[in-house]
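Quiz preparation item.
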């Protein structure tokens, strides 16, 4: 076996790659694993590209936009990477050879070819073949491979691999494959089909294309008849999107289990404990989907925008959130009254029962912070900030994003987050202060550290103290020696006996309005850095967004 090597392009996921780039990446993997690419393999890719483009005399060009040639290449690339990952860790006696690679690429390329119409068929786009596309793809593959003089054993292996992608009628893998290497390769192809599509960064948007294919088969097969046969019939595209978490939890994860969790070999391919495919899947679930249990939606998507700290994005995000939760624009018009009557009492409530998106992700065992940090946080942070923050702080922000999706369980989640912030910022205490305009106070809604029991619920006059300055100016403040800063008010220290030395305070902004501050106290060396300020600002944006959700939930209950 040739020495293994990876190129920079090998580290990229399929998203946003052209078809030619995809093919070059796949062939580069073969070259790195086995040596020179044989003409038969290169010809296979070129010929199937012609099939999808309509250059075969027997078939029209592929007209469906979900199960297209780009998807076939995504599956090829994921399967190729699993193969390499397998060879890295499994015994040499079980290594997958170049022939296995050939067979897997043929199966991946043809597995959805059944959506392509025969020449002269101008009815529909090909979605009408949804229920029978696997069988059609098997026949197209068989005809092509026979014509290209592949051996009967090779052809049979490819056709059987394709049959494994018919998840509704998945055959017995052990009966299909007596050879353990072929069995493993078949499992990788079927796994790649599921993983590649859900890891696409445009997965949620592409569900529109999938729904169009479903609509066509409903028209050709009669939706009432299909429903009677037990086929799921979707009425709207939103119905599919709303059910994506359930689909992943109840179908994808169990199916991956039946296939031997071959996706784990992607981690071996990429190294450093990373699986960017799973990172993207988790980001898709967390960033675009609905947490029906907590009653406010698309939290991750909004967090992404808040992390960018653009006022326009924040405004748009909150506007969308209000629409999604059924709230009218008036929800923030009398915001201070709402903060005081609905938000502040929430901080004293006990834990609540409820199963949130974070719970679901944990249960599905897709949340592995060490491996997810880079992928998920890359979608939450500006590139420059993502690259500048060390892994420990990125890890903290990732954990926070996941934890906050369990906020329906009660304010103790925020306390956990603040305790984690104390650790990562290497400080002694932290607190959330909410502005009460009626009393002209900054009210300590939540606190951690030694002064916790004596400060929660206390009010600090707005026109005094650093928190009041940050609130009025809407700007962060960093003080390494409070005794030398005229903005600092030591009245709280006198009441509690706590000795404040250094402070980092950032504003809590909602829809351009400052509603309070987030503070960290007494860094170990008393020198809070710009990096610390960036982390605390991102955290404040996350918390502010969550507080809007709490407010909507509490005001709903009150009404």
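Solution:
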């Amino acid at each position: 076996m040739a020495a293994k090597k990876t190129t920079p392009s090998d580290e990229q996921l399929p998203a946003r790659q052209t078809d030619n780039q995809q093919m070059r990446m796949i062939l580069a993997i073969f070259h790195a694993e086995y040596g020179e690419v044989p003409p038969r393999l290169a010809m296979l890719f070129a010929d199937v590209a012609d099939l999808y483009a309509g250059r075969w005399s027997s078939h029209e060009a592929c007209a469906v936009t979900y199960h297209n040639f780009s998807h076939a290449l995504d599956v090829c690339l994921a399967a190729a990477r699993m193969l390499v990952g397998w060879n890295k860790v499994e015994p040499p006696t079980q290594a997958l050879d170049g022939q296995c690679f050939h067979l897997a690429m043929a199966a991946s390329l043809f597995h959805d070819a059944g959506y392509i119409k025969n020449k002269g068929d101008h009815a529909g786009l090909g979605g009408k073949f949804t229920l029978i596309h696997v069988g059609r793809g098997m026949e197209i593959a068989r005809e092509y491979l026979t014509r290209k003089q592949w051996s009967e054993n090779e052809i049979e292996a490819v056709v059987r691999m394709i049959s494994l992608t018919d998840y509704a009628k998945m055959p017995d893998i052990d009966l299909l494959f007596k050879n353990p290497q072929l069995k493993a390769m078949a499992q990788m192809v079927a796994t790649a089909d599921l993983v590649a599509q859900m890891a696409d960064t445009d997965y949620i948007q592409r569900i529109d294309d999938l729904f169009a294919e479903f609509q066509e088969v409903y028209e050709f097969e009669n939706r009432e008849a299909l429903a009677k046969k037990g086929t799921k019939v979707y009425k709207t595209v939103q119905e599919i999107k709303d059910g994506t978490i359930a689909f992943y939890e109840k179908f994808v994860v169990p199916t991956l289990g039946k296939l031997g969790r071959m996706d784990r070999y992607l981690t071996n391919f990429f190294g450093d404990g990373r699986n960017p495919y799973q990172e993207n899947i988790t980001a898709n679930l967390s960033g675009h989907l609905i947490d029906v249990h907590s009653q406010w939606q698309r939290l991750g998507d909004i967090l992404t925008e808040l992390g960018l700290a653009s006022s326009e994005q924040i405004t748009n995000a909150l506007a969308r959130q209000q629409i999604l939760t059924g709230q009218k624009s008036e929800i923030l018009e009398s915001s201070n009254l709402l903060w005081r009557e609905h938000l502040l009492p929430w901080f004293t409530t006990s834990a609540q029962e409820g199963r949130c998106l974070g719970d679901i992700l944990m249960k599905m065992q897709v949340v592995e912070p060490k491996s997810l940090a880079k992928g998920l946080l890359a979608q939450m942070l500006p590139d420059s900030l993502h690259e500048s923050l060390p892994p420990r702080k990125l890890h903290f922000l990732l954990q926070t994003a996941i934890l906050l999706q369990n906020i329906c369980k009660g304010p103790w989640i925020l306390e956990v987050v603040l305790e984690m912030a104390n650790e990562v910022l290497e400080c002694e205490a932290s607190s959330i202060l909410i502005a009460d305009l009626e009393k002209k106070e900054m009210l300590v809604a939540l606190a951690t550290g030694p002064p916790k029991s004596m400060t929660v619920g206390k009010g600090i006059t707005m026109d005094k103290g650093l928190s009041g300055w940050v609130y009025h100016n809407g700007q962060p403040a960093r003080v390494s020696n409070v005794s030398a800063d005229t903005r600092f008010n030591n009245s709280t220290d006198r009441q509690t006996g706590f000795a404040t030395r250094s402070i980092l305070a950032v504003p809590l902004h909602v829809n351009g309005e400052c509603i309070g501050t987030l503070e960290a106290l007494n860094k170990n060396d008393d020198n809070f850095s710009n990096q610390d300020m960036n982390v605390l600002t991102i955290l404040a944006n996350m918390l502010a967004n969550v507080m809007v959700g709490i407010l909507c939930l509490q005001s709903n209950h009150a009404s």
